[in-house]
Amino acid sequence: MIRINEHYLKLTASYLFSEIARRVADYAGKNPGKEIVRLGIGDVTLPLPPACIAAFHRAVDDMASVKTFRGYGPEQGYDFLREKIAEFDFRSRGAAVSPDEIFVSDGAKCDTGNFQELFAHDTAIAVPDPVYPVYVDSNVMAGRTGENRGGRYAGLVYLESTEENGFIPGIPRERVDLVYLCFPNNPTGATATKDELARWVDYARENRALILFDAAYESFIRDGALPHSIYEIDGADEVAVEFRSFSKTAGFTGTRCAFTVIPKKCRAYTGGGEPVFLHQLWLRRQTTKFNGVSYPVQRAAEAVYSEEGRRQVRELGDYYLKNASLIRERMSGLGYPCAGGINAPYIWIKTDRDSWSFFDFLLEKAGVVCTPGAGFGPCGEGYIRMSAFNSRENVEKALERIAGALA
Ligand code: MLT
Description:
single chain; Aspartate Aminotransferase, domain 2; 12 helices; 17 strands; about 35% helix; Aspartate Aminotransferase, domain 1; binds D-malate; alpha/beta; 2 domains; globular
């Protein structure tokens, strides 16, 4: 008898964004012809930067000639891309990351979801609440939790991010082995200072714990005092793995390119307390289960770091940040307090009713899709998240319609 992994049965019926898509499809079916504006899932709408497109085309032409054709590439990414990442994303900020500590991949979602494979079954895990659902669901699937009760899985430590703590969770009282952090945060848009990250690094060092640091939204940071990488904190290279993505930075959601940084010094331990370097384990995992990102896509990603690429990427970010500021201003003006949306593309909006009711209200009365905060965890109840990744025209249209619906 073929048996299933019964841990899957503990999961909520569908992934948050699938449930939203289902409700939106249902609404669209009942309201044919009614235009819907999507400020829900963080999917970009502007095209790839011209520098990336030009590099992409050139690389496709390389594949057409026997002299320049490439077959299987290195599973961990081509050196041409890893060198640029190390130089521009890390060394230029004083973080000593070397190219061979970078693993190019097809997405931060896949990497943050898969990384837990490296750890023991009884690892004590802390996740933020509200949380990007992938961190939780991937550990549920692996059997590291009990049942879900009231939106929380038994066995996980939830780090509450609330209005009271400025959406920056505090260090847990109990000892945990693995901590997921995300800054700029999805979903709240909160950012962490160097001191705040340093407290987590100290905690991890004292407890021989590991931080999985999701920095997929770092390119939206405009405040010069905020850290872009956890490796800007001394000692983080022994206790933190960092996830990055070209998806939101440069419009690669459909093209797929991301990377994970695993410093050579970063370690976890055997049951007997012997250190094991995570770099070796992840390399072993990736060479077994992953065939790398396609050559043209990596060439397109490399172009992000050219002079014109950096300028174009900055302009893309500025465009979405302007949307974010319009959403903040308008929603606050309508009496809904907003967090995030300054160094982040997400705006976390406090509503006057439960999250799903507000979601349904906006969909039905304004034809606008948001993400209900409760879908990210109990601390998200009473909030919605709006994404700034639509066009200016659509953002303005959505805000007009919302104002009309609330009038
Ligand atoms: C989101 O809307 O939270 C993100 O788009 C999800 C993702 O990047 O996987």
